[in-house]
Amino acid sequence: MLRFATIARRTVPAGLALALLAATRVLGADAPSGRGVGPITTVELGPIDAAKAKAGATVFETKCSACHKFEERYVGPALKGVTQRRKPEWIMNMILNPEQMCREDPEARKLLGEYMVQMTFQNVSQDEARNILEYFRQMDSGGTPAK
Questions:
Q1: What is the pLDDT of residues 61-80, one digit of tens each?
Q2: How far is CA 88 from the centre of its chain?
Q3: Rounded to an integer, what distance in angstroms lies between the CA atom of residue 38 and that of residue 57?
Q4: Can you give the pLDDT of all 147 residues of the chain as single tens digits?
Q5: Where along the chain do its domains lie?
Q6: Cα separation of 80 and 77, whole Å?
Q7: Cα distance between residue 5 and residue 8, in whole Å
Q8: CA-closest candidate to residue 96, choices 147, 133, 44, 141
């Protein structure tokens, strides 16, 4: 942000620079309290659903494991504890809507700045994203998915 402001001061009139800076700040303003940006606004959580977690493990292995591990930083962040750090809606929106999340969600932008790679959309459905969330919940509770 500071770099943008410095460049803007040098190359465009002050009024326009302020308008551009304000517009970049507004992008994250609509992100609802830690839920992220995307189609998921609420997630009802109950006990961990083992069948969903098992299905989520399969989707994770197929579409996510090339970039994510649970115990270590890889291309993307380590996922251990993600369900304690992030709301379920945020997790699902990041899976379903990574481009917009990286543009508009403050936490997703921080991750992009740290990892320097934007998460790619893996053509995951909402049901698959919910199953992945359940898999994460199971892993974070110390369980392992049924084989």
A1: 999 999 999 889 989 998 99
A2: 10
A3: 23
A4: 444 444 444 443 443 333 333 333 444 444 446 999 999 999 999 999 999 999 999 999 999 999 999 889 989 998 999 999 999 999 999 999 999 999 999 999 999 999 998 999 999 999 999 999 999 999 999 876 555
A5: 1-30, 31-140
A6: 9
A7: 5
A8: 133
Element spanning 47, H or E = none
Site of tokens 């369900």: 83
Give the up-direction half-sphere exposure of residue 50: CA atoms within 13 A in the CB hemisphere. 5
Q: How many CB atoms lie within 10 A of CB 30?
A: 9
Q: What is the CB neighbour count within 10 angstroms for residue 135?
A: 25
User: Six-digit token pair at 98?
Assistant: 């990574």
Structure tokens at 39: 């189609």
Q: What's the first-to-final CA gap in the chain, in angstroms?
A: 47
CA–CA gap between residue 116 and residue 24 (Å, rounded): 19
CATH 3.30.420.10 fits 31-140, yes or no: no
Do the Cβ atoms of 102 and 37 come closer than 8 Å?
Answer: no
Collapsed DSSP state (helix, strand, coil) of residue 137? helix
